[in-house]
Structures are given as structure tokens and as C-alpha cells.
Amino acid sequence: MIFLWWIWCFPQMLLGLFVKIVTKAQKQDDHYHYRYRRGSVSLGEYVFLCPSHQGDPITLRHEMGHRTQSRMLGWLYLPIIGLPSFIWCECFKGYRKKHKISYYSFYTERWADRIGKIERE
Ligand SMILES: [Zn+2]
Q1: From the CA of 112, how far away is ligand 1's center (Å)?
Q2: Any domain includes 2
Q3: Mean pLDDT of all residues in the chain?
Q4: How far is the CA of 77 from the centre of ligand 1 (A)?
Q5: Which of 17, 34, 70, 73 could be stapled to 23 by a disulfide with Cβ–Cβ 3.0 to 4.6 Å?
Q6: Within a domain: residue 107?
């Protein structure tokens, strides 16, 4: 099966493999733990949890939601989900704080939450 995901999800799989190697991520069941502190990320079949999220089932379900998005969207995952959510994460911290908007209100995140059946306040 993994071979098919490599074809269907090639760009994010390549990026995921790169992240796995560079961060020396450790496999944990169906996902990875890495020591990078700036957040968890899902790249194709590679789901990485940062130290503060390791052992957190909600975050794991959320990231698995992104993995499902990757499986649905294939090569379109990075332009539709990956890039917008990266920009939302990195460039809109001040905006979210100022307007008291949840990180999880952005469409990429709301959708991942919905897939993971996560209810947030
Ligand atoms: Zn997310």
C-alpha cells in the first residue's frame, strides 16, 4: 500500500521522508516522534508529533486528519492544505491573538478536526 501512497502523494511523501531523516524522527506505532519544538506536522504518510504533543491523543487525531486529507487530495495536498496551513501557522500569530481567533478555525484545521471527530471550545 505504501507504494501507492508514494505515487499518489509524492510531493508530501518526499518532504516527509526528508523531515524524518533530518530530524532523526523515531517511529511510534503509526506515526513519528521528533524533537523539533515548533509544532506537529503531517506530510503524506509521515505524521510527526513534537515533544509537547507526544502522547496527546487529540493532536494525534488532528494530524491523522491531515493524513486523510493527503490521501484524498494527492498531489494537491501541499497547495490546498500544506502551504496555506503553514502560512496560517507562521505568519498569522499576531492576527489570531489580536482578534482572539483560534488556530483551529482556519479551514485546513477545521477540516482535519472534523475528520478526527474533535470538538473544541
Ligand atoms: Zn493542523
Answers
A1: 6
A2: no
A3: 97
A4: 13
A5: 34
A6: yes
